[in-house]
Amino acid sequence: MLEITDIKVNYGKSKVINGLSLNVEEGEKLVILGRNGVGKTTLLKSIIGVLPLEQGTIKFGDTEVSSYAANARSRLGIAYVPQGREIIPDLTLEENLDLGGYAHTKNLESQKAKVLDLFPALKEHLKRKGGVLSGGQQQQLAIGRALMSSPQILLLDEPTEGIQPNVVAEISNILKRVQTEMKVTVVIVEQNLKFAKKIADRFVIMQKGQIVASGKTNEMKDDMVKKYLAV
Ligand SMILES: Nc1ncnc2c1ncn2[C@@H]1O[C@H](COP(=O)(O)OP(=O)(O)OP(=O)(O)O)[C@@H](O)[C@H]1O
Ligand SMILES: [Mg+2]
């Protein structure tokens, strides 16, 4: 479904992604692991089209999207939940959701109903400003906003960062439902290993802008964790 072949991404002279290839199959739940600064966010940003490739190709379905603008990729079905959530604090919860849907659906209300079905905790706060919600609620809102575009694939950047353990469990349940009920393929960047193992069937580990290890999450070896993830 997503086919990344030998890509390089730089910030000016600083080379961040160095010849990385990765395939994601439809229906898969993949987690991308790696220490701080290895290029995880940069990889996601290059997939959604906000950072240009120096080299390589990205295919989504049958379409080569390497040169497509971010809005065109979004229209094809690629959605993104940014690190740090980035909801709009001065808009209400509902307005934040609507923003995610305007460009994608003529049936805003029905799509919103579908999304809110996944997030009973949000339903009660539709008229409250995004900025007054708790971290966990904001994370749910950010996921909900991304789902408003009815994506085929959802990319999430560290969804559990700074979130209380009980809410982490809730988010893991929501992502399972996103995958099973909405049939959305899920790719998560994560540093929370326990959460990663719970939510994903396959992992890849990044180091210095490359993938250095991969496998099934239930077969992840301790020495791998020590070598590439422990701090
Ligand atoms: N806008 C930018 N301009 C220049 N360098 C950047 C920029 N964004 C990130 N970098 C650098 O690129 C490298 C990879 O950053 P990136 O944010 O992709 O890492 P990450 O794996 O997501 O880290 P973290 O786990 O801390 O979120 C880092 O060395 C970072 O300092
Ligand atoms: Mg990051």
Structural features, described:
The chain has 231 residues and is an alpha/beta fold. It has a single domain (2-224), classed as 3-Layer(aba) Sandwich (Rossmann fold). Helices cover 36% and strands 26% of the residues. The chain is built from 9 helices and 10 strands. It has helices spanning 40-48, 70-76, 93-101, 108-118, 120-123, 135-147, 165-180, 193-199, 222-228, and strands at residues 2-11, 14-24, 29-33, 55-60, 63-64, 78-81, 153-157, 185-189, 202-207, 210-216. The strands form 2 sheets. It has a 6-stranded mixed sheet, with helices on both faces. Strands 2-1-4-5 form a 4-stranded antiparallel sheet, with helices on one face. Strand 7 (153-157), helix 7 and strand 8 form a beta-alpha-beta unit. The longest helix is centred in the C-terminal third of the chain and has 16 residues, at 165-180. The protein is globular. The two termini are 33 Å apart. The protein binds adenosine-5'-triphosphate and magnesium ion (MG). Magnesium ion binds at residues 40-41, 83, 157. Residues 11, 14, 16, 34, 36-42, 83 line the site of adenosine-5'-triphosphate.
Poorly predicted runs = none
Helix/sheet category:
alpha/beta
H/E element sequence: EEEHEEHEHHHHEHEHEEH
Give, in spatial order, the strands making up the sheet with the most strands. 6-7-8-3-9-10
The radius of gyration is: 17 Å
Q: What helical percentage do the residues reach?
A: 25-40%
CATH superfamily: P-loop containing nucleotide triphosphate hydrolases
Count of DSSP strands: 10
Give the ligands present. adenosine-5'-triphosphate, magnesium ion
CATH topology: Rossmann fold
> What portion of the residues fall into strands of 2 or more residues?
25-35%
The helix count comes to 9
Average pLDDT figure: 93
- At the first level of CATH, the class is Alpha Beta
Distance between the termini: 33 Å
- Describe the biggest sheet? 6 strands, mixed
CATH architecture: 3-Layer(aba) Sandwich
Shape: globular
Number of domain modules? 1
**Oligomer class:** single chain
